Amino acid sequence: MSFTEPGVPYTAFAQLLESQALDAHAVAQFRAIMTRESAADPTLLQLEGQVPVRWFREVYPELDAEQATKLGHAFAEHAQLTSFGPLSVPLISAGSVAEIMELLTYLPLITTAVTTRFHPNEEGLTVGLTGHIGDSDLDCLIVTYCGAALRRLVQMLVGDESTVRLHTSWPAPTDVDQDEARPGNMVFNAPMTFLHVPTEALNEVCRFSDPVAYRLAIADLREALEHRVGPTSYSAKVRASLDEAAALKTCRTVAEELSVSASTLKRRLHEEGTTFRELLESSLLERATLRLLDRSMSVSEIAVDLGYSDLTNFSHAFKRWTGRSPRQFRESCRSW
């Protein structure tokens, strides 16, 4: 078993095995996989290991988005939300919902299966959620779990999470009516997958606030993140560089950052089944769609923010990716 592949925290997985969210047959299958891969409970606990998300595909070979959504919710309902290793103390001691959301910055310390992208705006905070399993249904499972768990956490620490909503880019399960789901905890068929936290919710005060404990815990998290072993694959390293860029980067620019030649970088990416252009466009599309949800930014401002020299180039690129212009895309998002 590789501890570098996308996974979920072992503590969360162990809680799942002990909960009522799984039937006896599924638990037995997971235990058999653990035995096969020499992943005993004490070993995973000692290493603060991550359980590969691919195990869920083995146990649920027919898993689709509908089942993944239901499982993600069921798993979140049984999670002990304040027992996630280094995030436990700051979760309990956070002073507000805004500080809870800040902790998503440190998500890489406990899982590599999902990443977050933040965009504060006049209406609150939009948090883009992206799964990195390489299997769309498993991505659906982990993102649903993450979003639902966050909402439960807000409810536990604040007392109300009704205005915090998870928007997903996939359809509602067949037994869930979209009109009924909209006032609830999930909105389906959104233009992208994101969590929206209104300004009034961000300012809600947590029940167990401890400013000193929170500040000390945050300092430890920053240090841990700085010393964390970076992504091992070239595609992950390139994507990380592109996501942090304040301007458009070229393959040569990123290659220089990684101390390799451009030809070597292209070869490494090809070996990993991708290209620099694919990674660049994926990064730009995620950042662009998140900003287009924010109506306080004009399309021209978004183009500049993403590093484009003019609106025309950005519009042409966005239409090539999505089939719609930025303005058409924004128009389709009016109901969100």
Alpha-beta content class: alpha+beta
Low-confidence stretches: 178-183
Mean pLDDT: 87
Domain module count: 2
* Spatial shape: globular
Q: Order of strands across the widest beta sheet?
A: 3-4-7-5-6
Q: What is the CA-atom radius of gyration, in angstroms? A: 20 Å
Helix-residue proportion: 40-55%
Give the percentage of residues in beta strands: 5-15%
Described by strand count, sense and barrel closure, the largest sheet is: 5 strands, mixed
Q: Compute the separation of the termini in Å.
A: 41 Å
Order of helices and strands: EHHHEHHHHEEHEHEEHHHHHHHHH
Q: Number of DSSP helices?
A: 18
Protein model, in words:
- There is one protein chain.
- By secondary structure, the protein is α+β, with helices and mostly antiparallel strands.
- The chain folds into two domains: 64-224, no CATH class; 234-332, Arc Repressor Mutant, subunit A, CATH 1.10.10.
- The protein has 18 helices and seven strands.
- Strands 3-4-7-5-6 form a five-stranded mixed beta sheet. Strands 1-2 form a two-stranded antiparallel sheet.
- Helix 12 runs parallel beside helix 15 (276-292) and helix 13 packs across helix 14.
Short description:
With 336 residues, the protein is α+β, with helices and mostly antiparallel strands. It folds into two domains: 64-224, no CATH class; 234-332, Arc Repressor Mutant, subunit A, CATH 1.10.10.60. It has helices spanning 10-18, 24-36, 41-46, 54-59, 65-77, 88-93, 97-102, 136-158, 178-181, 199-202, 211-227, 234-243, 251-257, 262-271, 276-292, 299-305, 311-322, 326-332, and strands at 7-9, 50-52, 114-121, 124-131, 165-167, 186-187, 194-198.
